[in-house]
Amino acid sequence: xxxxxxxxxxxxxxxxxxxxxxxxxxxxxxxxxxxxxxxxxxxxxxxxxxxxxxxxxxxxxxxxxxxxxxxxxxxxxxxxxxxxxxxxxxxxxxxxxxxxxxxxxxxxxxxxxxxxxxxxxxxxxxxxxxxxxxxxxxxxxxxxxxxxxxxxxxxxxxxxxxxxxxxxxxxxxxxxxxxxxxxxxxxxxxxxxxxxxxxxxxxxxxxxxxxxxxxxxxxxxxxxxxxxxxxxxxxxxxxxxxxxxxxxxxxxxxxxxxxxxxxxxxxxxxxxxxxxxxxxxxxxxxxxxxxxxxxxxxxxxxxxxxxxxxxxxxxxxxxxxxxxxxxxx
Length: 329
Ligand SMILES: NC(=O)c1ccc[n+]([C@@H]2O[C@H](COP(=O)([O-])OP(=O)(O)OC[C@H]3O[C@@H](n4cnc5c(N)ncnc54)[C@H](OP(=O)(O)O)[C@@H]3O)[C@@H](O)[C@H]2O)c1
Hints:
Layout: E1 3-13, E2 16-25, E3 34-42, H1 45-51, E4 68-76, E5 86-90, E6 105-108, E7 113-115, H2 122-143, E8 153-155, H3 161-172, E9 177-181, H4 187-193, E10 197-200, E11 216-221, H5 225-233, E12 235-243, H6 257-261, E13 265-268, H7 276-287, E14 299-302, H8 307-315, E15 322-326
Parallel strand pairs: 8-9, 8-11, 9-10, 11-12, 12-13, 14-15
Antiparallel strand pairs: 1-2, 3-4, 3-6, 3-15, 4-5, 5-7
Helix pairs in contact: 1-8, 2-3, 2-7
The site of NADP nicotinamide-adenine-dinucleotide phosphate has 33 residues, from helix 1, helix 2 and helix 3.
């Protein structure tokens, strides 16, 4: 019986979670159509939530997180895929309640698999991962409302995965990007990615007025909470914010005035349940006209053994850049 290694999250006692690298049998994986030997996974904030027992992400423990995976099909009951095909599996239930990419094998429905586009190394796709896909979706949505020639656009969580890729993509498309960060000592990296200036998150003056001085033509927000509320009241006439995250809080208070007096738009972005064709289109762009050439300069490759400390860092908001996990293959 073939065995493989996985990082498992175990509930040691009620409410107390620990991580262990364990050996499992392939037969322990759920019954789905496609068995994939995972070459690479990547680390996202959601994995840290799952690894810390967040039941909104993962209901059952023990559990293997890892919402991203890239690997080679070993068995397929679906004619769309055959042994040897290289696939990306991102989103849907992977790593949430289905064992994810922090295991050397996954078994998933064929409908979750996208063939790996040609022309880039495997590590490029995982350097992007869910963060890159989400950034592409945010940019796609925002660009329907805000043209590059307009005033500055703001990106929050700038040193995080979604933030970094958003800055790189917006700059590539000609937007004037301001990077909002709590880590101003990484300004150099953000400038190299394409930001024209840095906004220190600590220095933001949060107001409770319904409308504030109009500053931004648009924004991509990964924070939620008070920061999202402040962005909405600071958008220029006709501006828009693509909101995808909640590192700063899952609630925010606003009024109707930015919407009815400035005609601003709040654009929700979801990468998880997005139809497969739209995911494939974003990957196509990221492999071609939206290629983020320098993303691998800001990406660290780690092993399964190094994952727990990286999980802790991203959970505490201390991570800079992307982390990919390279399995033995
Ligand atoms: N909707 C979707 O489909 C989707 C997909 C992917 C991710 N997300 C969400 O998007 C968010 C970012 O994901 P990620 O993978 O980029 O995470 P990440 O790599 O951990 O980056 C998050 C960044 O947010 C900033 N931050 C930390 N604490 C903050 C606070 N209290 N207030 C404001 N900013 C704070 C930090 O950057 P600075 O120090 O530079 O500010 C941090 O590096 C998460 O909430 C994640 O769940 C949603």
